[in-house]
Amino acid sequence: MDTSKTVAFHTLGCKLNFAETSTLSRMLENEGFQKRPFEDIADVYVINTCSVTDNADKECRQLVRRIQRKSPQSLVVITGCYAQLKPQEIAEIKGVDLVLGAAEKFNIATHLKELTKGDSARISSCDIDEISGFNSSFSLNDRTRTFLKVQDGCSYNCSFCTIPMARGKSRSDTIANVVAHATELAANGVKEIVLTGVNLGDFGISESLNAPGVQRNETFFQLIQELEKVEGIARYRISSIEPNLLTNDIIAFVAESKKFMPHFHIPLQSGSNRILGLMRRRYKREWYADRVATIKALMPHCCIGADVIVGSPGETEEDFSTTFDFLHGLDVSYLHVFTYSERDNTAALSIKPVVPVHTRHERNKTLRNLSYMKMQYFTGQHSGQSREVLFESRNKNGMMEGYTDNYIKVTVPYQEKLVNTVTSWAI
Q1: In angstroms, rounded to a whole number, what is the distance separating the alpha carbons of residues 157 and 209?
Q2: What are the tens digits of pLDDT across the range 327-347?
Q3: Do 366 and 324 touch, CB atoms closer than 8 A?
Q4: What pTM did the predictor assign?
Q5: Phi, psi of 330 (to 5 degrees)
Q6: What does the alpha-carbon distance between residue 414 and residue 401 come to, in Å, rounded to a whole number?
Q7: What is the pLDDT of residues 187-222, one digit of tens each?
Q8: How many CB atoms lie within 10 A of CB 381?
Q9: What is the DSSP string of 195-256?
Q10: Which of 51, 81, 376, 427 maximizes the CB count within 10 A of its CB?
Q11: Cα 118–119–125 angle (5° rounding)?
């Protein structure tokens, strides 16, 4: 393929995917490709997919159809979790030329050189159990905030989740490499780094093919201690960390840190211990409540977010009410609410009874309303205070946005001098 051609990217799903897409983009630009907005006409379209929910699968198919309508001669490459889980299904979508599994996505340049439009869709995937390597990634589209991937894969076996099948077992970068990337990002003017991974608290864990069994060489606590020393980075955020891996040492360190922001995102999934058991989660609601209480005792101003799944198999009205009441009384600031959707080859498919889809959506709406009220309350607690805000570069109809240290969004009239600065601002 002529590498003077153009390429456009679209990312579905999590922050980890955004970091990887940004890295793929830089790799192809280094090979001579010119990047274009996804809405424009391009010679190659790359869709980095998610497969946490059925909606993500549907959105991928819709994007391919849109490309077919506007630019039928363009090459279409699908990668990401959906590509790893269902490569044959994707290959049968009209217009798809290449499907890259988890091990092959970072070899995209080589694959594109061998690709011709009109051939049958090629699948380059592999057995997920054969994946043991780690590919570092970070986003560099906006200097203000960067997503830095430090961990990948998951060795847990939650009954609802396909991520271990899509990304493989837990594996990590090294502290030395992460620090080097943070130093590079600081040199590029980045002010805030969001640490990302599938199971971030498992940083340092590896399950090598050459040396079977779990090994721990370094820890997440050691990582954040070293990152604190990197000059030029003003802020770090921990994207998400499992409650059973959120130790007192990590909480205490963040409370005293000048760079790690008072903001935790801690997946809960259910406030019912019975459902947590069916989900094969590694904690009970009492431990989750203890983590929240420990954080708030040291950082009353800390923002805490929670993931919750509604309508999972076996969830009764009583279970949902228990979850609602638990969250209503818990000092968390916002919720990310997911409606359960059936995923192939997961243990949850054998759990009964199945919750009707309309009931799942009703429960989702109820918790989203609760989330809105909680965020309003949390923001109101800080009304009139001055907090440090990192302002972003985007000009939205004469307005600009930024986030306080504790993750409250601030919107003000656009001032170029504020872009990428940390400024004390009255909320």
Answers
A1: 19
A2: 999 999 999 999 999 999 999
A3: yes
A4: 0.89
A5: -95, 140
A6: 8
A7: 999 999 999 999 999 999 765 544 555 566 899 999
A8: 14
A9: EE-SSGGGTTEEE-SSS-SEEESS-HHHHHHHHTT-TT--EEEE----GGG--HHHHHHHHH
A10: 81
A11: 130
